[in-house]
Amino acid sequence: MSMAGPSDSADLIDSPDPIDSAAARLAERLLGMRANREVIPEDPNHSVRWHEHDYPSPVARWNYHPEYELHLIRKGTGKFIVGDHIGTFEAGHLALVGSGLPHDWVSDLEPGEVLQGRDALIQFDGKWVDQAASIVPEMADVKPLLEQSSRGIEFLGRTAQAAADSLEAMGTATGLQRLHHLIEVFAILTRAPQEERRYLADEWFRPQLDSQAAAVVDIVLEYVFSNHAGSVKMSDAAALVGMSEPTFSKYFKRATGQNFSDLVRKLRLAHARRLLEHSDKAISDICYEVGFTNLSNFNRHFLKDIGATPRAYRTARRHERGKTAARP
User: Fold this and answer.
1) Domains of the chain from N-terminus onward
2) Which positions ≥6 away from 45 have C-beta within 8 Å?
3) How do residues 162-175 score in pLDDT, each as one tens digit?
4) d(CA 28, CA 317)
């Protein structure tokens, strides 16, 4: 999400990059919303692009882009979505969003209300970090952070405050002073203790794919999405991409880090979580709607993967939403 001057504004388009499409389509199917591809023009005068914008804004919407994004919310409360994660935010919220990962921040507003300057953010190409690391070895410290951001990272506590201060300072700085604050941001985030970083999207959500693997996985995901409530067979998926079943099994595991059957199960459980949170359907109906054929099997897998029974999960999420709604 970004907004700059008229000649420096980002555009939103509907045609996804092949490598990004797997994550975008996962998000669309799991959350019921299509992410828009944001096109961010290069800025030859800066290593990164710094922006601030109001809310609502035409570009403050569910989107994704190849660039990495560090996003600060300065004011207000609301809900945010990163990948398949839905959470709440308040002023001071700071998140690093990886390349191609869909995201959005939606504020709680009164009718006609506008939050001036709600957002401050930087966006940058990961290739710049790789090129810098080849010349300045210390920059290699940033690369693990960017790899971890494929799930989205929310920073908390002192880390969030210190990084936010440096991010804000970039907005008024130029030249080497601006670069100094950028290096400060990287240094702060790479040193963040585990208790001050929270990973957002599930690990399986954003596979790291080259263009060929992305095309194969996208075909398979479309097959799974279209049939997950019924019969999903590895043999059928393999046939779609012209592979034998053993070859497909190894290729899919190497490309996504997941066994095919595990991914199908996790997609079904993610769909079940969405239905539990946003519908009043009976748990037994949800079980069959998402593709399980046995209620006890559904309950067992849900408890193992999610850490709660479907009933307890629904109760907890409704209680959490009730507390958010009651917040003054």
Assistant:
1) 6-199 (2.60.120.280), 211-323 (1.10.10.60)
2) none
3) 999 999 999 999 99
4) 21
CB 237 within 8 Å of CB 224: yes
Per cent of the chain over pLDDT 70 is 84
**What's 35's DSSP letter?**
P
DSSP conformation class of 115: E
- Residue 34 DSSP label: P
Alpha carbons 243 and 240: distance in angstroms, whole number? 8
Question: Which value, to the nearest 10 degrees, does the dihedral of the CA atoms of residues 72, 75, 81, 83 take?
Answer: 0
User: What order do you get walking across the sheet with 115-124 strand by strand?
Assistant: 49-55, 115-124, 68-73, 94-97, 153-155, 197-199
Residue entry with tokens 């999960």: 313
Look at residues 53, 78, 76, 36 and name the one whose alpha carbon lies nearest to residue 2.
53
Under a CB-based contact definition with an 8 Å cutoff, are residues 22 and 33 in contact? no
Strands 115-124 and 103-107 turn out to be unpaired
Nearest to 142 by CA among 192, 207, 194, 196: 192
**pTM strictly above 0.70:** no
DSSP string of 126-187, one letter each residue: HHHHHHHHHHSGGGGGHHHHHHHGGG-EEE-HHHHHHHHHHHHHHTT--HHHHHHHHHHHHH
pLDDT at 314: 93
Calculate helix-pair angle for 295-306, 310-326, nearest 10 degrees. Answer: 50
Phi, psi of 36 (to 5 degrees): -90, 140
What's the N-to-C CA distance of the chain in angstroms?
27
Among candidate residues 199, 321, 229, 209, the one with its CA nearest the CA of residue 29? 229
CB 35 within 8 A of CB 56: no
Give tens-digit pLDDT for 272-310: 988 898 899 999 999 999 999 999 999 999 999 888 999
Tracing tokens 């849900």 back to the chain, one arrives at 302
Q: In what order do the strands lie in the sheet with 11-13?
A: 11-13, 36-39, 63-64, 103-107, 78-82, 85-89
